[in-house]
Amino acid sequence: MADSIKDAGMPGSDSDPTTNPIPKFIPKRFVERYGSIVDDPDAFFAALAKPVPKSFRVNTIKSNREEVMERFASYGIDIRQTPWYDDAFVTDNLDIGMSLEHFLGFIYIQELTSMLPPLVARNELSRANLVLDGCAAPGSKTTQIAAMMGNRGVIYANDSDYSRIRALKFNLEKTGVLNTVITNMGLQKYPPRQFDCVFIDAPCSSEGTCRKNDKIFFTWDEGYIAKNAEMQKKLILKGFDLLAPGGMMIYSTCTFAPEENEAVLDYLLCQREDAKIEKVVIPGLKTAKGITSFAGVDFDSSVKDCIRIWPHHNDTDGFFLAGVRK
Amino acid sequence: MRRFKKNSGEQSGRRFRKDNREENEVKGNPTALTQSRVLDYLEERFGLDKSLFKDYSFYLGVKERLYLGPRSDQADMNGMRVATIGLMVARADENIKPTTNLLQVFGKKITKSVIPLTCPKAIRFVSGEDLILERSEIGPVIDGYVLLKYLNSPLGCGHLKDGSVKNMLPKAKRMKLKFI
Questions:
Q1: Which terminus, N or C, of chain A has the lesser number of Cβ atoms within 10 Å?
Q2: DSSP per residue over A190-240, as a string?
Q3: A174–B12: do the CB atoms touch at under 8 Å?
Q4: Which of A100, A166, A213 is the closest to B153 by Cβ?
């Protein structure tokens, strides 16, 4: 890998920018950190320079994929179903947000990786009565969870940031979701409950979204990662404590940082003896295993059952996801 | 988790006002009288059968806002700071006003007070314009709140009076359509 970095040239180096596959906006330290854990560094860094394709999900509360496919075909818009989720589509048309179907809430414009947490818990959700979405705003996952529950049972959609509650409410109403209680409180203060399913899509350093928003690197540094990790450890413990025995928690982030991913799971396993990482499989989607050591720190070997989504594998954002059974 | 960014085009692409923290708080369940008044109205005005709502509960918020949400025997909110519940379906003050979200969700079940629009008028309605309709477009619908439809798509709520429709779409929902 060292050779690979050297060959590629570093951001800000004297190498010819036209032959440098590493985008200039990527910090040198970022390249050093992840060049050693990704399978194909050149493909990875090259993927970060490309925009992420426009994607959306069919909202089955209001419509169905046959109807949506038929309607977009009538406009002459090419939409392509993903091989790993029948209700997920990508398109080259950037104006689908100006379609009648978007206005009606028949489709929900959402990043593909953001669809993964509810997708891996689909079987759990089909029989769940009580679900907690611990970091819910702006509601992409909550609306998907509601659709998978058939708009029945109860979803507690919580976000600690009041300024984001309005967006959450808007999106839930637009998609016709009825089975939610929106709460606005720090998760640590959540009263004791026993949820069948808990989602912790934790606030993170958002490195995986840099294809869409390279501004994340303006504030990126390892101190920020460490700060996030401390908060995420509190969130995952609380989320786990709110699970019913036998229940399933999905922990996810949109960052590559092992400190915010595998290390957080490792912390949970150390703190809670009844936590067990469950192997996550998404047929049709290329995934990588969780890593078991980083920067000289070893993690519990079962974190290999978490999954990492690298951008160059499926032409998506970066993502991390783990299923935890109580 | 991604932070919502205004005008990003994702999620809603809308700018949201800074909130008044009291605005969305739900007070509890409505009186039986309020609930039956709204259910009677929805049945009489829109042909919505009361049984459609039997798996859900009604909640009353500030400004007589009525919400349809999860069953109250399942939704234990003790110890929680609740911002809102389910979907706001109507304002239940002296005159009942249904919401566009209600008419969209149950649009396929609505049999009365429906006005079909032509494509150009549907585009104008979605953009937020009020409409003046021909007598033939209104048909047998009497003045009051109506569902505006384009083909089999329930667009939203309008208020019909003397041949014109006042646009009741919330401002945050209005948009310029390119594909219809």
A1: N
A2: PPP--EEEEEEE-----GGGTTT-GGGGGS--HHHHHHHHHHHHHHHHHHH
A3: yes
A4: A100
**Chain A partners of B76 at a C-beta cutoff of 8 Å?**
193
Q: Give the count of Cβ contacts less than 8 A between chain A and B.
A: 161
Domain with residue A242: its CATH number is: 3.40.50.150
Query: What is the average per-residue pLDDT within B9-30?
Result: 54
Kindly state whether residues A223 and A250 are assigned to the same domain: yes
Domain tally, chain A:
3
Among the residue ranges A98-107, A128-137, B56-65, the one predicted with the least confidence is B56-65
Strand ranges in A33-160 using DSSP code E only, listed in sequence order: 54-58, 79-82, 85-91, 107-109, 130-133, 154-158
Same domain, A120 and A248: yes
Residues B153-172: what's their mean pLDDT?
A: 97
Taking the alpha carbons at both ends of chain A, their separation in whole angstroms is: 39
Same structural domain, A148 and A251: yes
Secondary structure (3-state) at A52: coil
Question: What range does the domain containing A15 cover?
Answer: 2-48
Amino acid identity of residue B121, one-letter, is K
Residue B58 has pLDDT above 70, yes or no: yes
Of A64, A82, A109, which residue is a domain's last? A109
Distance CA B147, CA B169 (A): 11
Distance CA A269, CA A49 (A): 36
Rounded to two decimals, the pTM is 0.90
pLDDT at A215 over 90: no
The predicted-structure confidence for B112-139, as pLDDT tens digits, reads as follows 999 999 999 999 999 999 999 999 999 9
* Interface check B54 vs A, CB under 8 A: no
Whether residue A254 lies in the annotated active site? yes
- Put simply, the answer to whether A178 touches B1 (Cβ < 8 Å) is no
Do A126 and A181 lie in one domain? The reply is yes
Domains of chain B with bracketed CATH: 26-105 (no CATH), 113-173 (3.10.450.720)
Q: Flag whether pLDDT at A100 surpasses 90.
A: yes
Average pLDDT for chain A:
92
Q: Are residues A71 and A149 in the same domain?
A: no
Please report residues of B whose CB lies closer than 8 A to that of A132.
none
Q: Which residue of B has its CA nearest to A178?
A: B86
Predicted-complex ipTM score? 0.88
